[in-house]
Amino acid sequence: MQVESRTATPTPTKPRVVGDNTDDLRTLLALHAIALGTMSHGLCVLDANGRVVLFNQRFLEIMKASPDTVGVGMSFRTVLELGVARGHSTRKSFNETWRECKEKLAQAKPFTL
Predict the structure, then answer these.
(1) pLDDT band at 3; cut points 50, 70, 90
(2) What pLDDT was estimated at residue 31?
(3) Which member of 12, 36, 44, 85 has the lowest number of beta carbons within 10 Å of its beta carbon?
């Protein structure tokens, strides 16, 4: 006599993707804010047009700027020019820095100041 063994076939479940719901999004945004706020490096993220899309407090400190003077949507060139206007860098230094930044932006490559 042969005994047939039957096992339950698991029903396929949809893979869970973080960010699928509002709670996940809130958690991710909170972690993002903590990471940006506690990193020791200044961070400024630019879009393909060289405009600021994200920055942290340390970036403002390094640039000797405030949230009143630097904001999302501002061109990075303008951010650098603030340093010249405030006497933190010379026009010559600005021109060299901007030339290097422009080259990296055109190549869509990260760069550091």
Answers:
(1) low
(2) 87
(3) 12
Question: Quick check: is 11 in a domain?
Answer: no
Whether 2 shows a pLDDT value over 60: the answer reads no
Please give the Cα distance from 19 to 27 (Å, whole number): 9
Residue 7 lies in a domain: no
Report which of 97, 102, 103 is spatially closest to residue 81, judged by C-alpha positions.
97
Strands 44-46 and 52-55, sheet pairing: antiparallel
Asked if residue 88 is part of any domain, the answer here is: yes
Q: Specify whether the backbone of 42 is left (phi greater than 0), alpha (psi in -120 to 50) or beta.
A: beta
Report the domain count for the chain: 1
Of all residues in the chain, what percent carry a pLDDT higher than 70? 82
Supply the range of the domain harboring residue 61: 42-106
The values of phi and psi at residue 40, to 5°, are -85, -15
Q: Which residue has the tokens 């600021």?
A: 52
